[in-house]
Input
Amino acid sequence: MHDANKIIPGIVLFLLVISFPIWYNVASGQDAAPPILEKPVNATKCVEDVEYMRVSHMQLLDSWRNEVVRNGNRIYVSNTDGTHHEMSLTKTCLGCHESREKFCTRCHDYMAVQPYCWECHVDPTEIQ
Output
């Protein structure tokens, strides 16, 4: 090892630089504040309960897509109370959550995820 005096400090420096975001967040001691979401004004409850939707809405939307496209089934029966809902992102979800920007996007940005819903679906507010 001819250059051990250069390689070892280089590795240490690399590890410090690559782990800087972690150490910086630990040192600051602050968690990112959760987003403030605009709640629906014209609805009293969701398709499922809030905790389920918060954790599993993507699985629900994926199952809706599969049911509609593959089986032609457009009616969803809620597991919570047995109510019937149309399996439609635009009509059902955006019927209550009127602003994609103030509801969906805020939460997805906070979680650093990029949903692929809008590759096919059109936000009704963008059409106007």
About this structure: Helices lie at 4-18, 20-28, 50-71, 89-96, 101-111, 124-127. The chain has a mean pLDDT of 88. The two ends are 68 Å apart (CA to CA). The chain has six helices and two strands.
